[in-house]
Specification:
The chain is 72% helix and 1% strand. The chain has helices at residues 9-25, 34-57, 72-91, 93-96, 102-121, 125-143, 149-180, 185-191, 197-215, 223-230, 233-239, 242-258, 266-285, 291-311, 318-343, 356-359, 361-375, 381-395, 399-420, 441-459, 461-464; strands at 61-63, 68-70. It has a two-stranded antiparallel sheet with strand order 1-2. A hairpin with a 4-residue loop joins strand 1 (61-63) and strand 2. The radius of gyration is 21 Å and the shape is globular. It starts with 8 loop residues before the first helix and ends in a 10-residue tail after the last helix. The relative contact order is 0.11.
Length: 474
Amino acid sequence: MNDNLAALLPETALVAAAVIGLLAAGWLPRRRQWAIAALAATACVTGLVATAVTLATDREQAVFSHDFAVDAATETGRITVLGALLLIIAMSVETMRHHKREAEYYVLLLLTGAGTLAMIGANDLLMLFAGYLLASIPAYALAGFAKDAPGTEAALKYYLLGALLGTTMLAGTALLYGAGRATLYAELRVALPTASYGPVAVGLVAVLAGLLFKIGAVPAHFWVPDVTDGATAPVAAYVTTLPKIGGLIAGFRLLHQAMPGTAVNWPLLLAVLAAASMTLGNLAAFFQTSVKRLLAYSTISQVGYLLMALAVATRTDLAQQGLLFYLAAYAVTNLGAFAVVTELPHARTLADYRGLARRRPGLAAVLVVCLLGLVGTPPTSVFLGKLEVFSATIDGGYTWLAALAVANTVASLFYYLRWLAPLFHPAPTDLPTPAHATAGRWSAATAYTAGTASLALGLAGGAALPLTHGRLLP
């Protein structure tokens, strides 16, 4: 049995930093709580360095009785999650400064980040569920961290739906174990094709229900707009980014490694869910006036595009690289848009952004890059990600789904332009002065960093795509 703890250094760094931060929070004075944010950032950097070393040495391995796989998908997911977590920590500085629970906020972020990494590398159903719990429970507390009425409502809705679908996921795990007499993916791959169809089908749908909740896809999407709108902007940035990375990579690994030989037609199921998610998300976003709710429905539509890669997970080799690159591209682009929202805390509606190009040209430029990037406009990274996923979908035999995705992409331009157009209109004379007041330099720096990364990743896609290659370990 391979019990190499060094293979889990990124996950260990986050958990260790969370424990140290929680202990230190008890005696640090309030004016020194920022040290926990620095500790959290250090843990993320440590994980990134460890991941870079593993990539350089090409040490693919399955550890702890093959429960956790360290391969191309895990390494790419680690880079995306840790990089996104760094951006979220940076954009949280002004929001959480001098908050009486500042240290606890960063501890919760570290714990949910560790749970996300556990889901990414999970090679066993029980490991997957443990990662689901670790990623979910701290997130419920984060949603209601502001302790105001909208935040409390958001946390309650998030928790209730998460508990319901988490229990469903556990029941599905039990059914798949009963059908295959194992929880390890490699053993299920052998046992499930000869097992009874009913338990396998119901079990898989139940496990997928939990993952659909994590990523905010139809029909488990109802929490997304309310939580995004009710939580603080940095937490909204988290819930629309990190859970999707963990849930989608975990779902891809489960389907690719454990389900290829079963009689269950899960590719068609996921294709239908992808079509429903992208269409519903776009239609619901058309006439939103709240910027956070618009981004919430936007993220539902983006999940629809990403689910296309899962639908063809076993049908084409292009699916893995398309999914992993698209996730990285979406993460920096979505976080860039949310960083602008965080930097302008008093601009809550589309109308509040009138005249921003004149008053805050740098932030307006970032918003243009990120919103057009979410559409899939070249040369942003999401354009290349969509191109890869759409190509994989066609190669996997779902041309109709790719055509629907192209139509949805064109349609999405409408509501992104509804936000962008006011930037270049003269600001009305009765617009309150605080509408364009900025929160501070940390949020602005995050916005500029994420916007630049979105462009750079698109321009350097030829160098980044090879990182997503490589087989998934059994």
